Amino acid sequence: MNYYVAPMEGLTDRVWRQAHQKWFAFPGAPARYYAPFISPPENRVLIKKKMAELSPAANPGAPVIPQLLAKDGELAAWMIGELRKLGYTEVNLNFGCPSGTVTAKGKGSGMLRDPGKLDAFLAAVFANADGPISVKTRLGVEKPEEFAAILDIYNKYPISELTIHPRVMRQLYRGEADRAAFAAALPGCTMPVCYNGDVVTADDLHGLEAQFPGLSGIMVGRGIIADPALLRKALGGAGATREDLRGYLDDLYHGYTELFGSAGCAVSRMKGHWFYLIHKFEGAEKLEKQLRKAREPWEYEVVVNQIFTLPMV
Ligand SMILES: Cc1cc2nc3c(=O)[nH]c(=O)nc-3n(C[C@H](O)[C@H](O)[C@H](O)COP(=O)(O)O)c2cc1C
Questions:
Q1: 163 pLDDT band (50/70/90 cuts)?
Q2: Is the dihedral of CA 3, 9, 14, 15 positive or negative?
Q3: Is 196 in the pocket of ligand 1 (CB under 6 A)?
Q4: What is the residue extent of each domain of the chain?
Q5: What are phi and psi of 251, to 5 degrees?
Q6: Which domain of life does this protein belong to (predicted)?
Q7: Ligand 1: distance of its center to the CA of 221 in Å?
């Protein structure tokens, strides 16, 4: 079973991918890091700053899979060609993002509203781009029953792997991933399928593997931010030590400071990680507000030092 790390805007960027590999590397885990989405520029002029995220020199180690958020199939195919020039093989298409600003433009899971448009998009992509193209999808817009018609379209194309996050667009991240709907959809999929959604422990990963032995992969998102050693543990390795976490968080903080040219901006990015990670420290909830309010680097550093005096869960 392959374990993948989910694309998460603001979390699984290149600074994170490097820090994660340095501190929590384990042979074969993750098999791949999916990079947060990028949108192909309509004028077909690549923006250097955005492409820096995918520069091969900044992404040594485990394979990184770029992800595209697009609704123009020919433009997406052009971008896939540009990514191939950089050496990327697989490129992933995003039909999952539920954010209102994205779906209002008919992108992300907004693409699932109109199966005809989805079909035309995929036809244009596959007619104009070569090489492995994978898809990450939700089950639909309003209800899981929509997936049957969506899957009929996916099955028409040589999708290299279909990652299914069994929620619908309207749900955002509310409720639970609908594993029963996933199980019902699985037999109809003609391509390799990866499961994604609400996996937060090694036991849960193993349980899914036992329940769905035919999967090509399981993708973890928030669970690996909450416990960066999640995949290492699932493969029989050690849990995160205090030293691992200290080194990892220091590397992230310094990496973001360098990337943004400002420790203040790094503080705000670090809060995104701490939102999930704070629960690794017993009783740290009482410091959550202080962490949220920290603006200056020194304020952030003081509260993080306090958190590190707490026992780990
Ligand atoms: C902050 C955040 C940013 C995300 N950004 C992306 C993204 O760029 N592309 C994407 O396909 N999914 C994105 N997702 C969705 C995740 O990849 C994943 O599908 C979702 O979190 C469910 O998996 P999990 O329960 O393991 O976290 C994002 C999720 C979160 C919470």
A1: very high
A2: negative
A3: yes
A4: 2-234, 242-307
A5: -65, -40
A6: Bacteria
A7: 6
